[in-house]
């Protein structure tokens, strides 16, 4: 059976899925990228030199990358962990905060014919992630400004979901609050 998440196309990203106040983070310009890479540590023996005789998996690193454009102040304040006053967004130095406890669930929904999918089997859910504040704005004659946002994805520590990042496809009947 094939995955139902569609082969290509744009998406909607919901930050805080399943919570009151969930937020659609779009629109985007460029790829939305959810990626994971498992790291391995080589096992060596002197007689084989630098050629590994085995390897051990030592953990998977996952991330979500968004390129937000034409964003609202509310959206940017949320993903940059900033605050607003009137029409001003205040950017601050970020330090000393543990991220897992304030991380949220994200759901990625494909868009087809300008309609966001309402079928959970087509969605991707990330259980726990948090945006790493950062920005890179360009001023020139031809470059549209975007906020490239990187989310650190954590393996769940919740009972029954330990070590899991999320799902590709969700159970029928999944719903969300706030949107």
Question: What do these coordinates show?
Answer:
This protein is mainly β and 179 residues long. It has one domain. 4% of the residues lie in helices and 39% in strands. The chain is built from 1 helix and 11 strands. Strands 1, 2, 3, 4, 7, 8, 9, 10 and 11 form a 9-stranded antiparallel sheet that branches. A hairpin with a 7-residue loop joins β1 (11-15) and β2 (23-24). It is globular.
Give a topology summary.
Layout: E1 11-15, E2 23-24, E3 33-43, E4 54-68, H1 73-79, E5 83-85, E6 88-90, E7 104-112, E8 115-116, E9 124-132, E10 147-154, E11 166-168
Antiparallel strand pairs: 1-2, 1-7, 3-4, 4-10, 5-6, 7-8, 7-9, 9-10, 9-11
| Separation, N- and C-terminal Cα atoms | 31 Å
Mean pLDDT figure: 93
As residue ranges, the low-confidence spans are none
Kindly estimate the percentage of residues that lie in beta strands according to DSSP: 35-45%
Anisotropy-based shape: globular
The total strand number stands at: 11
- Give the H and E element order: EEEEHEEEEEEE
| Strand-pairing-aware structural class | mainly beta
Query: What number of structural domains do the residues give?
Result: 1
| Helix content range | under 10%
Question: If helices are DSSP runs of H or I spanning 4 or more residues, what is the number of helices?
Answer: 1
The largest β sheet comes out as: 9 strands, antiparallel
User: From the alpha-carbon coordinates, what is the Rg to the nearest angstrom?
Assistant: 19 Å
